[in-house]
Amino acid sequence: MITYIILMLCLGVLIVIRMAIHLYRPDIEDSEHRVRDHPIEDLNDCYDFVIVGGGSAGAVLANRLTENPAWKVLLLEAGPDENVLSEVPVLFPILQTSFIDWQFATEPSNDYCLSMIDKRCKWPRGKVLGGSSVLNAMLYIRGNKRDYDNWERMGNAGWSYNDVFPYFLKSEDIRIAEHQNDSYHATGGPLTIEYFRYEHPITNKILEAGAQLGYVVRDVNGEFQTGFTRSQATVRDGLRCSTAKAFLRPISKRQNLHISMNSLVEKVLVDEYRTVYGVKFSKHGHKKIVKASKEVILSAGSIQSPQLLMLSGIGDATELKELGIFPIAHLPGVGKNLQDHTAMGGHSFLFEYPSDKGARFCFDLNTLFSFGNLIDFCVHNSGLMYSMVEAEAMAFVNTKYQNPAEDYPDIQLFLAPTADNMDGGLFGKRANGITDETYAELYEDLLYESSFSIVPLLLRPKSRGYIKLRDSNPNSPPLIYPNYYSHPDDVKIMVEGARIAQALVEQPALKEMNARPNPHRNPGCEEHELMSFEHLECQARHHTLTIYHPVGTCAMGPPDNPEAVVDARLRVYGIRNLRVIDGSIMPTIVSGNTNAPIIMIAEKASDMIKEDWSNLPQEIITECPKTNNVESKTAYFDEPSKMQTTPYRLDVFNETTNLFPNLADTIKITDRVKRIHKNKEPGFESDKKSEEASVKALPANPYKIKSGLNIRNDFGTVSPYAEDDIPPFLPPPPPPSRHENVYIPHVMYPQRAISDYIFKFLRIK
């Protein structure tokens, strides 16, 4: 009953705020630039590109691809448009578990999330236009330079820090005066970066304590990352700047962009040649198939991009067959390699203001939603409504396991001016799913006492989890196993991070505020000595928090990596016209919040797509796939030679082979192909036995593959090729008994497809 009353009070307060915004802040509603939702009956049957997911990556892609007026793009988003309440920074925890949140949760575990309801950590993900950029804490962090250099060392050409840095700048509009003339920042982009407008007095004291601990207060998005900083955030005029606000509203009038909200994609459609030709989705109970003449792009995030691949028959063949899903491509890395930034909750500290510094401060309902605060927000553009209670400041620090000289910190500290006791359970307890027992033990006799939190976060976890399908129903949430702390080094580093937090509190700047730890211990950890290794490990395993940064489940990697799902141009291995562009492609997690890197990935991928599809010879004109508007295991094609491909590359599955780097180089060989055909040289007879010979009849490789190069096949194994060989896309498959009933379409040996294409191009009959 009490919970119901509190919920009704919260609802009433939100209604009042909504009315106040409507009356006094119409600029927040921005009704003139709001994106139009296209009804299902108004959608075309075919587009050049279909983007699945309108979040941090999808919104960027929709903007950049429609810069080409000749390209028609459909953006499918499962949720609605963002609500004006989502723009108010202080309300962000309330958005979690709301109707714009997918409300995922990890599977129960006895090793982590022990203080959460049913031993499950909540994993909020944005089900809204703008995706998780509408739900997140708005923190703008790029990560460490070495993160991206390591990606390139792993075999992902073009992803070094020097390669990706311009794409951070491309989207940025920094409005922090001291950084506007800085070479590490840029102005004029669509994504606005500011400081939070409201700052709690304790925040400056925490930064001062950081300096006393020996760290520099600096721009952690600049030359060096190690240090303390006031949080840079994706806010504009104090309000949230989501990717929908930054990238979609300014182009809402573009005629070549259609956006369909509340549209759940159920499956990616693949034809008999392993070419993606569209998607099947549902909207308000109606189902529709939409085709793509160029590509389908999955930007559904690290949970739902792999889920969609698996629902479409792309993943571990054995696991798919167990669920009754017809395997189309065996990619065992789909859903694997799950990484997340885990943090230790419950690390709160009490403090007191000196008598001359003002009254006690808290975030209870009466204070936060008082008439005075509403007036400040609506009339004076100031006050608590502009605060970000979770991390007004942050730090990147080194434990004893990391060399400080390397500027590669292993712990991030969120420095929050509040703790879970200060809101009476309204925000943190509800958002994280903390049990009543845990909350009562930690905070019951400290409710609304002045407190702050220092939350240590593991920047580069070594633990790896995975995502699996629950069943073959696209409406069912997947099974999420993050496997937090499964690697012992993660526990050691987290414990040291908590000790650094304790050392920070012992600095003079905070001692003068009488800062001290919460005297209560997490239930289940009472037997351990306070601040001992055993106590801190216990707290980490009980009060486990996600920082909402799952990545890696469709990892980018070279073809000899059996766990890789996409290549360096983000094309799905073994499938044509399908890319994944979101945080799931990160091979390793970045050292910081992931929203800015995901936006960068989408910016870079947009240029890749433009490079691949622009400036093609006039003869190469993509058309809508000539399939029936029905779903089938083998889609009907009038002419196999009309299958659509990524701008035609013989190396479409692996750019690193450098066989024919682009279409123009492919065409260079066609004269000799034509002569071979005209002179009736062996290799181009029309019978089936000629397929392999047709490729051998091509000229010797002028681009010289590296000797002994391993080319990935579709079953996770590799086959070596000699220096002058011209391999097919994929080596021949293993004997059928190895993967019984796995669909092995003709395109696995696409020599006929290659020759069909070349003959069609040359008009050879």
Describe it.
It is a single chain. By secondary structure, this protein is of the alpha+beta class. It has one domain (1-616): FAD/NAD(P)-binding domain (3-Layer(bba) Sandwich), CATH 3.50.50.60. It is built from 22 helices and 28 strands. The strands form 9 sheets. Strands 1, 2, 11, 12, 13, 14 and 26 form a 7-stranded mixed β-sheet that branches. Strand 12 and strand 13 form a beta hairpin. Helix 15 (488-505) packs across helix 17 and helix 21 (690-696) packs across helix 22. The longest helix is centred in the first third of the chain and has 23 residues, at 2-24. The protein starts with a helix and ends with a helix. The relative contact order is 0.14.
Output the CATH class name.
Alpha Beta
Main sheet properties: 7 strands, mixed
What is the CATH homology-level superfamily?
A: FAD/NAD(P)-binding domain
Number of discrete domains: 1
- Stretches where pLDDT is under 50 for at least 5 consecutive residues are 632-765
Number of DSSP helical runs: 22
Helix content: 25-40%
Query: Taking all residues together, what is the mean pLDDT?
Result: 82
Structural class: alpha+beta
Terminal residue distance: 79 Å
* Oligomer description: single chain
In the CATH hierarchy, the third-tier topology is known as FAD/NAD(P)-binding domain
Shape: globular
Q: Strand content of the residues, in percent?
A: 15-25%
Taking all Cα atoms into account, the compactness measure Rg is 27 Å
